[in-house]
Design brief:
The chain has one helix and 22 strands. With 359 residues, the protein is an all-beta fold. It folds into three domains: 2-23 and 164-242; 28-156, Sandwich (Lipoxygenase-1), CATH 2.60.60; 259-340. The strands form six sheets. A four-stranded antiparallel β-sheet has the order 12-1-16-15, with no helix packed on it.
């Protein structure tokens, strides 16, 4: 995917810079727990997206109304492996209930749990659980509340850490502006395009515009210093640099593999399914028949060509005595040359299957 850049002014030199936000994984996660144990300890376990990252165990058996801040450092490697970039991150808090009779004040009492997260220079603090529905601020369990019952609390973290990263810089001098800027390595999503132009008298002027890149969808930015746009001459949603037929809106890429080839219950009708990737508005199919399952190039017949767009063929010919027929099917579209001919699948050894051309 390439973007065409057109300057609206005449600078001496400058840069085209592409920025995009990058999601970050917290390198530091600390749980702050308001808890105290009486007579025996029930561990409190913390899971991130189902992965155990920390365990709190109050070994002091302090049995205090105001136990003070107690901190549990999460395993950074476990956090890194479990953290979902760009998705929901769920903290699960689990604790077994006290086996003692109610109101006997035995076991681990939890008032609230707070979490601190840090990713590079960004930080966040979130109250995950408060037995009183508060904001994880009451230090005294006798004044506030606590529970010795079993716990299983799930909390979706609101923190999503990101920073803007410079992904590409293209410099130019005078009129030697690059006609195209490569966007192939830019991930889909929010991005920012900045044009910095250097004028001998006025110094450096910068123009930044925010946009989104979504696959091969058109990207257009109109700024005061430049115009940046993806070239899609035939407006089929595929950038010209990736389009097999840039002036034909009916075709844009090679077809995928036609799949699930089989006979129906009658043993005569050969059936198959459309490929996941059509690559064009209209496709048709070639069906090859061979007397050798390993050779569809030299001992095969092209029994169907241009069969639009049915996904079935009635076989009327029977093999000679002692022979068996084998079949393969491929999709074909209007992309020019071999690009428009889809694959025939793979042989049992994993290699791409070759086959004869159809007229």
């Amino acid at each position: 995917m390439e973007a065409e850049v057109q300057l609206l002014t005449s600078p001496a030199q400058g840069e085209i810079r592409l920025h995009a936000p990058v999601m970050l994984v917290p390198g530091l996660v600390i749980f702050r727990v308001n808890a105290s144990s009486c007579e025996f300890v029930e561990p409190v376990r913390f899971y991130l997206n189902g992965v155990l990252v920390a365990t709190f165990s109050d070994a002091s058996l302090a049995c205090l109304c105001e136990p003070g801040d107690q901190f549990v450092l999460a395993d950074s490697n476990a956090v890194a492996s479990a953290w979902a970039l760009g998705g929901d991150n769920v903290i699960t808090i689990e604790k077994a209930g006290s086996p003692s009779p109610p109101n006997t004040f035995a076991g681990t009492f939890v008032g609230w749990v707070e979490v601190f997260l840090q990713a590079e220079h960004e930080t966040a603090i979130e109250c995950l659980f408060d037995v009183d529905g508060g904001a994880c601020a009451e230090p005294n369990q006798c004044h506030g509340g606590s529970t010795e019952d079993s716990l299983r609390i799930e909390a979706v973290l609101q923190a999503a850490f990101r920073k803007e990263k410079l992904l590409s810089t293209t410099g130019f001098v005078g009129s030697q502006l690059p006609a195209l800027v490569d966007l192939a390595q830019i991930p889909d999503g929010d991005m920012r395009v900045c044009i910095a132009l250097d004028y001998p008298a006025a110094g450096v002027l910068e123009d930044c515009s925010s946009t989104q890149k979504q696959g091969e969808a058109a990207l257009t930015i109109n700024g005061s210093l430049c115009v940046v746009s993806v070239r899609d001459t035939d407006t089929d949603g595929s950038d010209d640099s990736m389009d097999c037929a840039p002036t034909d809106s009916g075709a844009w890429s090679a077809p995928g593999e036609a799949v699930s080839l089989s006979f129906d219950g009658s043993g005569r009708a050969l059936l198959w399914e459309m490929p996941a990737q059509l690559g064009a508005r209209v496709i048709h199919f070639d069906v090859l028949r061979s007397i050798s399952a390993s050779d569809f190039s030299t001992v095969s017949d092209c029994i169907v060509h241009g069969y639009v767009p049915a996904q079935a063929y009635d076989e009327e010919q029977a093999p000679a005595a002692g022979e068996l027929f084998s079949y393969v099917v491929r999709a074909v579209n209007s992309c020019p040359g071999p690009v428009g001919v889809g694959p025939l699948g793979r042989a049992s050894d994993g290699t791409a299957r070759a086959g004869r051309n159809c007229p």
